[in-house]
């Protein structure tokens, strides 16, 4: 039983990160049909902004986190939208998806060439303390990760449902043409989605880097994991991304412990195929209209 | 298309083909090797262009089919079978698996299909790595022999290059014929408007599966050539990355254009190599370099060579930002006023939330 | 026109051969500068660069400066073969690298055909078993290091059953297979055989299983970063049995990353920048000062590889790739004769090396050497 709890909690902590990154995926998809293959690198990079803020500007850790998030919002939110997404928005999903693939290579190689190939230590958010929980040892850090991830998601939901801007964003996602007629500044709403995505990614970056270490290749698996989480949960639903993320983290751990370690990466994929075949809109997703 | 344009087109084509045939005489083994790699990769990209560019089905599994073909060739030829046997096995196996993998396409379309093929691609990688009893696992398979043709061993880089080039030519001709056949027109009808295609009596079920299976079979053939080219394979090159890279070739070259994959493979296979050697440009240019030095300082080239993957990524991004329909798409639109024979894929997905 | 062309061609040919004995001597580095192998290969390359600059500052080899050309395999066999071909087309005197064993496998045949010595970083046991007379290691192959670990397991840890946690890439799988063989030969039972992924971050499941297996010791064979994560998780779940490993478990980098959780880890250290030899410590400081990071054992491999080639060439008194390969077989280089070799090293007829190594333990956040294992040939 203790083992079960152990695996569950560890899985939830990892899954919380996947969820944070997956939410951004769904936001971009809903508002602009962007499939961002550089999403993993969007999590890898802000940690380097934060390290830079500490070493160059001499900021304390929390100050550096704030600066890192702001720079990410600007670079990975606004600039990304303006320079890469905008020119390609009306040319279909694929050219943009490929451009983000190139962007992912660019970010990885640039960090490796101009910063370092070596993994850089990153200060932890909390002291390395373990808490005993139903017989399982749980690190405080994992609990904080889960708490912040869930907190961020709840805040986002509240924002989307209970503020005027949030509802305008939803309207934009559902039908940009009608939204425009209703006088909603659609462009600004889409931009906002990109900024939120960048902020969530930067937040995830601050949460995972103490465990992952700051390294140029961090995004490789994270991006794919978040992608799978988004699909399993429902590509067009923020709530779905959370479920997908948490499920993926937990399933991965249980698969490694109880099924096959060599095929641990396969189990989430099988789950993915099953979900797509029997519930293509995702566990919590809504059915999408087909274009005819 | 006016007569002058046809002439211009054929002349360009002839020059390129003549260049490809003459190339080995001016190149060192390295140059011949990367040209061979280009030809082998282009075959897989042509396959994906059939599936994606003409029939409009997004596949992220083309790299896995290359892997299946490569392993079939490696296993058979290291056990004494001729490469011909590997051809048959790989093409049939990939056709069959592609056909089966097409079934989800009937249930779910558009991006969901991409997700299924993405999962398939990673599963194949895991099988290649974990099932050591058959694939050699992470140790890979060494000493893959070069094939013989009519009793003549194609051992030298030049001989094997011509062999691969001939394969590329055959595949290209077959694809050219297919696109102009009723099948090809059915593929395009399917991409443009599946419902109308169905109402016009196109058996969309069969053609969707066929588009998948044919593309997959070409992926397999590419793999059959890849194994004896590199002469050693392990699972790493056949990860999801290869599938994504092939997708990049099709899009960058121009999805749905016949010559798109050829150009796309130049960008993905040859361009990084060229960029990595950018600092040697002036060695090659001779006297001309004295003039060029003023325009482009050698230090800039050294910088590009050192960070060649960064330069490559920037090139691809800039290219797509300015020419989203790919290189061939751009030229076709520019030089022919009329619409290309097969217009580039319209936005493949247009999700509207209900 | 034709005549001038031929004349020009002839001129270059002769100029080329004249240059060959006077201009800089070409070394080729071919390695995983991007992709999964980037960290190891950057270390190797920087080590080699440092050695080359030192040698050049002292006037080069036999009066000729060394020029290093670099080729990136992208950790991809297809690219590796093209880069090896490219390197060979440019007729280098010596080839350094690659580092990953799979990448070595795809490229070693070409160097052999071109009869150019290849001084590489791969550790898979089968690399030197194929009669390639041009391939040289810079560290122990796993067929040498695993018996040492196995003896330690039997004689010092006195474990009757062990668990093994390994990373599922060519490094980890090769180690795991050799280790399993050595365990079987010594009658020690493997009660849990746990494969993990390269780049894995969450080791909860693996630690749970290792714990449940009730092994008397756990052999941890992962890359450095994963080792640190495993150590933390093991500490968290309260694993009390000894954690045994190689250089990748006991290095300073792992200790820095794992913190207190590294204490108590022990095992065999083949090659490491942390071993208590003044020359190695000095190398580490110089490296750190120049490249702003702490080298791992791959940095030493690149550094000593260059010095080995330089020393053997000086002994030969001429630049002859074929003769160099021949003379390296059976050669012993001692720091007395060439300080750059750092540790006395002998190459056997297969290109495998023999060196001293150490048994170490992590105590209070520092690697402490508990005993020294002499060279096998002594």
Structure notes:
The complex is a heterotrimer of chains A (292), B (354) and C (378). Chain A has one domain. Chain A is built from 11 helices and 3 strands. Chain A has helices spanning 2-32, 39-55, 61-88, 93-114, 140-162, 164-174, 176-181, 186-212, 219-233, 238-259, 266-278, and strands spanning 130-133, 136-139, 288-289. Chain B is mostly helical. Helix content of chain B is 74%, strand content 2%. Chain B has helices at 3-26, 29-54, 62-78, 83-107, 111-130, 132-135, 157-180, 182-192, 194-199, 204-230, 240-253, 260-276, 281-285, 288-295, 298-306, 308-322, 326-335, and strands at residues 148-149, 152-153, 352-353. In chain B, strands 1-2 form a two-stranded antiparallel sheet. In chain B, a hairpin with a 2-residue loop joins strand 1 and strand 2. Chain C contains 13 helices and 15 strands. Chain C has a 7-stranded mixed sheet, sandwiched between helices. Chain C has a 5-stranded parallel sheet with strand order 2-1-3-4-5, sandwiched between helices. In chain C, strands 11-12-13 form a 3-stranded antiparallel sheet, with no helix packed on it. Chain C is globular. At the A-B interface, helix 3, helix 4, helix 9, helix 11 and strand 3 of A face helix 5, helix 11, helix 16 and strand 3 of B. Strand 3 (288-289) of chain A pairs antiparallel with strand 3 of chain B.
Q: Please report the number of helical segments of chain A.
A: 11
- Named CATH architecture of the largest domain in chain C: 3-Layer(aba) Sandwich
The coarse overall form of chain A would be globular
Distance between the termini of chain C: 67 Å
Specify Rg of chain A, calculated over alpha carbons. Answer: 19 Å
Distance between the termini of chain A: 52 Å
Mean pLDDT of chain C: 90
Order of helices and strands of chain C: HEHEHEHEEHEHEHEHEHHEHHHEEEEE
Total helical segments of chain C = 13
Percent helix of chain A, as a range, is over 70%
Task: Give the overall shape of chain C, derived from the CA principal axes.
Answer: globular
- Residues in β-strands, percent of chain A: under 5%
Count the E strands of chain A. Answer: 3
**CATH fold description of the largest domain in chain C:** Rossmann fold
Strand content of chain C: 15-25%
- Give the biggest sheet of chain C: 7 strands, mixed
| CATH homologous superfamily annotation of the largest domain in chain C | Response regulator
Radius of gyration of chain C: 22 Å
